[in-house]
């Protein structure tokens, strides 16, 4: 029961002020934001690479996922990526793979419970 | 000369008083009167009238932040907005203590230009990410951090054939040969 509550909390849609806002550098907002884990996963393939590099190296993704989405498991995975010092499309691919794998695990887990 | 909103007209003496105050707002009525060749009571009356009608809004102090030891960072923030929300975004920005000045401008897109101060780059980023980007209607933000200030002055009021203009005095005094 507790686990199901956790999963639905992680997958919830956040209010505007808690969304993740993608910047390319200090103060430079791209106009892209993500209000849920699903949207965050989709935006990884859409936003400027500079933005992914900026936020990953600052630890912003890890912090938002842990503190706002309250998904410590994914935050830890992202933290590991941060240490690899990835850049460019390699970074985008790794990040997407990590987030999507985790997202679909959560979705399939919660679906199984209803079968 | 007639001014906006039924404010009284200003003559040459008023303008000269304003000019003197802009140079040094702490000088006495006598000093201003002496300089302009008029009685100190005239200076007093005219300053009072201009204060009452909001022509003189306030007397303030220009502080050299670096000498005081404040290590504030100043940035010029350009906020691109949805035209329908632009006014509301500008009003919201005005409420923030970090924002010193707010202007709207129409170039290719409708945008808001604001002067922002923050303690450091991190607090500037936090302010923009948490308080500006989430405002409804904000499309993009471009921020330029000011690295060196070369000039900062208040405009001086001048009366010429085109009416009242704000321009620095020294440019007007340049004589052509």
Keywords for this entry:
heterodimer; A: 115 residues; mainly alpha; two-stranded antiparallel ribbon; 6 helices; 11% strand; B: 177 residues; alpha+beta; four-stranded antiparallel β-sheet; two-stranded antiparallel sheet; 7 helices; 6 strands; 24% strand; elongated
If you had to describe this structure to a student in words, what would you say it looks like?
The complex is a heterodimer of chains A (115) and B (177). Chain A is 64% helix and 11% strand. By secondary structure, chain A is mostly helical. In chain A, helix 2 packs antiparallel against helix 6 (88-114). The longest helix of chain A has 27 residues, at 88-114. With 177 residues, chain B is an alpha+beta fold. In chain B, 36% of the residues lie in helices and 24% in strands. Chain B has helices at residues 12-23, 29-36, 40-52, 65-68, 86-95, 121-132, 169-173; strands at residues 73-81, 99-106, 110-118, 138-145, 157-160, 163-166. In chain B, a hairpin with a 2-residue loop joins strand 5 (157-160) and strand 6 (163-166). In chain B, helix 2 (29-36) packs across helix 3.
Outline of chain A: globular
Q: For the report, how would you describe the main beta sheet of chain A?
A: 2 strands, antiparallel
How many helices of chain B does DSSP assign?
7
Unreliable stretches of chain A (pLDDT < 50, length at least 5) are none
Q: Into which percentage range does the β-strand content of chain A fall?
A: 5-15%
The amount of helix of chain A comes to: 55-70%
Strand content of chain B: 15-25%
Instruction: List the chains of the largest interface with their residue counts.
Output: A-B, 12 and 20 residues
Question: From N to C, what is the helix and strand string of chain B?
Answer: HHHHEHEEHEEEH
Structure annotation, total helices of chain A: 6
Find the count of extended strands of chain B (DSSP E, 2+ residues).
Answer: 6
Radius of gyration of chain A: 14 Å
Distance between the termini of chain B: 31 Å
Please give the alpha-carbon distance between the first and last residues of chain A.
15 Å
Specify the oligomeric state. Answer: heterodimer
Q: Provide the low-confidence segments of chain B as ranges.
A: 170-177
- Compute the CA-based radius of gyration of chain B: 21 Å
Q: What's the arrangement of strands in the largest beta sheet of chain A?
A: 1-2
């Amino acid at each position: 029961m507790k686990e199901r509550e956790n999963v639905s909390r992680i997958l919830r849609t956040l209010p505007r002020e808690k969304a993740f806002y993608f910047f390319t550098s200090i103060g430079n907002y791209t106009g892209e934001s993500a209000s849920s884990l699903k949207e965050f996963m989709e935006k990884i393939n859409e936003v400027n690479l500079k933005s992914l590099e900026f936020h990953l190296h600052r630890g912003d993704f890890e912090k938002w996922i842990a503190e706002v989405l309250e998904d410590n498991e994914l935050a830890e995975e992202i933290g590991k990526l941060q240490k690899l010092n990835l850049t460019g499309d390699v970074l985008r691919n790794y990040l997407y793979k990590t987030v999507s794998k985790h997202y679909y695990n959560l979705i399939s887990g919660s679906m199984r419970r209803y079968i | 000369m007639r001014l906006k909103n039924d404010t009284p007209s200003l003559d040459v003496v008023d303008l000269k008083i304003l000019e003197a105050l802009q140079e040094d707002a702490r000088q006495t009525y006598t000093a201003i009167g002496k300089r302009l060749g008029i009685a100190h009571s005239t200076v007093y009356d005219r300053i009072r009238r201009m204060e009452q009608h909001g022509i003189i809004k306030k007397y303030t102090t220009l502080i050299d932040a670096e000498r005081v030891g404040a290590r504030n960072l100043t940035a010029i923030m350009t906020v691109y907005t949805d035209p329908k929300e632009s006014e509301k975004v500008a009003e919201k920005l005005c409420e923030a203590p970090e924002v010193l000045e707010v202007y709207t401008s129409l170039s290719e897109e409708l945008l808001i230009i604001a002067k922002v101060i923050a303690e450091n780059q991190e607090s500037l980023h936090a302010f923009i990410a948490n308080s500006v980007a989430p405002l409804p209607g904000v499309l993009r933000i471009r921020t330029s951090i000011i690295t060196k200030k070369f000039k900062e002055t208040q405009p001086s009021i001048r009366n010429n054939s085109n009416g009242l203009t704000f321009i620095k005095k020294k440019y007007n005094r340049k004589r052509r040969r």
